[in-house]
Amino acid sequence: MHVITDARPGRDPLAVVTAAVAAAGRLGLVDRLAIQVRVEDDVTDRAAYGLATEVLAECRPAGVLCLVNDRLHVALAVGADGAHVGADDLPVAAARKVLGPGTVLGATCRDEVAARSAVRAGATYLGVGPAFVSSTKTGLPAPLGAAKIGAVARAVPGTPVVAIGGVTLDTAPGLIAAGAAAVAVVGAVAAAADPGHAVERLLKALA
Ligand SMILES: Cc1ncc(COP(=O)(O)OP(=O)(O)O)c(N)n1
Ligand SMILES: Cc1nc(C(=O)O)sc1CCOP(=O)(O)O
Ligand SMILES: [Mg+2]
């Protein structure tokens, strides 16, 4: 499961990350969790670097994978495990060149053609969505649903597909059953009254 930071004003992304990492540790499932540092577009590189540094300091000692969204230079500067790019970011092949061969590189794809192309260009996993309506990101295309996400996953055997967008405790198992290797969440964890408990429940539901 990927937990993506909600770094909108008024949120406390580091507290959510700390709770998520602790929850995975309690369950002995740190290898099932990845944290993606995602900040708003208008956040300065300095602030993104600061948050990524703090998040990595939680993840690395615990053995939890740490990825950075969009900003490859921040990923490299903090020594993250990898990064995620989409249509408005560097192309996948360019991102692979910047990151080098040994790092995790995720790419957003919404259909089979884009998925095959991203894998050829060097993506190690694909973020495919939106699975359902998202409450934390606007401007997305219509939801794909579980069946379409499964079809994209079948187009790229051997490359994990991470389903994203409106994923909840109720919908996550159906996405895995359809063929996704994992799910990515923002609101289902960040907006929960107890983010650590939300991560525990999600990890248990997917174990
Ligand atoms: C796992 C995962 N999947 C998709 C995305 C979305 O990336 P992108 O399309 O570049 O949009 P932004 O997140 O940059 O707004 C993601 N971040 N993670
Ligand atoms: C950042 C992002 N990308 C998406 C895509 O479909 O590309 S959906 C999304 C938001 C995910 O947050 P939540 O779990 O709150 O819906
Ligand atoms: Mg992006």
TrEMBL record:
Molecular-function GO terms, alphabetical? magnesium ion binding; thiamine-phosphate diphosphorylase activity
Required co-factors: Mg(2+)
Positions contributing to 2-[(2R,5Z)-2-carboxy-4-methylthiazol-5(2H)-ylidene]ethyl phosphate binding: 134-136, 166
Is the keyword Ion transport assigned to this protein? no
Q: Does the keyword Magnesium apply?
A: yes
- In short, the EC number is 2.5.1.3
Q: What are the Thiamine phosphate synthase/TenI domain coordinates in residue numbering?
A: 3-189
Q: Which UniProt keywords apply?
A: Magnesium, Metal-binding, Thiamine biosynthesis, Transferase
Return the cofactor note field: Binds 1 Mg(2+) ion per subunit.
Q: Which family, according to UniProt? A: Belongs to the thiamine-phosphate synthase family.
Function noted in UniProt: Condenses 4-methyl-5-(beta-hydroxyethyl)thiazole monophosphate (THZ-P) and 2-methyl-4-amino-5-hydroxymethyl pyrimidine pyrophosphate (HMP-PP) to form thiamine monophosphate (TMP).
Q: Write the protein's name.
A: Thiamine-phosphate synthase
Taxonomic source organism: Couchioplanes caeruleus subsp. caeruleus
